[in-house]
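Revision sheet: structure tokens.
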Amino acid sequence: GLWGALTALSPQDWEQRQEEDTLLIERILLLVRNVLHVPPDPAEEQGVDGDASVHDRVLWALHISGMDDLLKFLASAQVEQQWALHVLEIISLMFRDQSPEELAALGQGTAGAEHGEDTQELEMLRQRELAEKRARALQRPSRHSRFGGSYVLQGLKSIGDRDVVFHKGLHNLKSYTHDLGKEPQRVPRHRQA
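Predicted:
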């Protein structure tokens, strides 16, 4: 009912709301504050250990109804600063039974353990990558020689009485001709056959 009254106002209506709408919002916030302000009664709340207290059940009902989202909106919206003290009071009453140390430990409990596991896994992956890099560096030769070698082709005479000196790699020997390395003579297009 209360939440429906607030959500019935569309965003445009929130900007152009009437005085009675502003009063309605204030009354709803004061009602929520007063409900949360009721002190716990240990004589009435004699449940089994681990049972949710009345306060916890009220908080759960607020969460189910979406009231916590509305409170976040009112706390963060620049134009809704008039409700800041009401929202602050409601939030402080929501965490009334919790100590700051418990809340901080609750947030870090599982997150801290997961963060530690993630850090260990990342460190292991980094060490493995460094080891692979070192292994690859050891496998490859330290320096690449651009010099393919020079070979004397016996039985093939060059200009004069000397044997041909071949400066390419041996795998290129099959395609050897005396014209290797010479520019082919260009024939003008009109003289081509």
